[in-house]
Amino acid sequence: MRLRADRPQRLATISYRAAAPGGGTEGARLAVERFRVDALPGGYDAIVAAGDLQGIAVSPLGGRPGLLGIAVADYLGVWADDGLLPPPDRVGVLLTGDLHSAPEADSRGASGPVGDMWLAFVAAGCPMVFGVAGSHDEVTTEQVGALGRDIALLKPRAPGLALCGHVSWSEPAARLGGGHVVNVDSRVAVFTAGPG
Predict the structure, then answer these.
(1) What pLDDT, on a 0 to 100 scale, did the predictor assign at position 155?
(2) 115-128, pLDDT tens digit by residue?
(3) What does the angle CA 130 – CA 192 – CA 95 come to, to the nearest 5 degrees?
(4) Is residue 47 a contact partner of residue 88, using CB atoms and an 8 Å limit?
(5) Coil, strand, or helix at residue 144?
(6) Which domain of life does this protein belong to (predicted)?
(7) Are 45 and 70 in contact (CB under 8 A)?
(8) Among 16, 15, 21, which Cα is nearest to 107's?
(9) Sequence-separated (6 or more) residues with CB below 8 Å from residue 167
């Protein structure tokens, strides 16, 4: 996959709570942005990539606030119904780690289990969920493998399109050699094929 343009199109935002510097909780907004690429892996109409989802949000399906990534997984069906994304069974997912949050979103750098987040994307109907565990994520290869054969915990590699997180940039994409790097630090990037 190679980007056709550096500038994404804003599709939606999700309000959530995050740990504030120095303690406490603050409100934040997660950007959901579309990038056009030259091609997608066969069988997919979109790839959703996200990382550093260290916050707590309410799912669009209701219930108690939980991990932000679970809310993102629940939004996939809502966005498909609104015509913003293809149905979840046509969406692949790439998670770049650091997905855990303290239960009250009041402590920065909290570590904990994120297996339920991976499961939320599988439950949403996504046939492919790949990712890299971050330094705050407690998930094992065995836990991920139990979710199905198309679900995998990967080691980093250097394609025409690289993803990163944990870096605060004002712009979400930059040139990297002959390709691009897209920063998904506290951002959801949706890749679809088509003209820039």
Answers:
(1) 42
(2) 888 899 999 999 99
(3) 20
(4) no
(5) helix
(6) Bacteria
(7) no
(8) 21
(9) 183, 185
Give the other-Cβ count within 10 Å of 163's Cβ.
21
Question: Directed axis angle between helix 68-81 and helix 115-123, to 10°?
Answer: 10
Amino acid, res. 62: G
* Burial per residue of 26-48, b for 16 or more beta-carbon CB atoms within 10 angstroms, e otherwise: eebebbbbbbbbeebeeebebbb
CA 128 to chain centre: 13
* Distance separating alpha carbons of residues 19 and 102, to the nearest angstrom: 8
Element (H, E) at 141: helix 141-145
**pLDDT tens-place string over residues 71-96:** 999 999 999 999 999 999 999 999 98
In this structure, what token pair is assigned to residue 76? 């996939």
142 closest CA partner among 129, 127, 150, 152: 152
Tokens for 137? 């994520």
194 is written with which tokens?
Answer: 């088509």
Strands (DSSP E) found in 6-89: 9-19, 25-37, 46-51, 56-57, 66-67
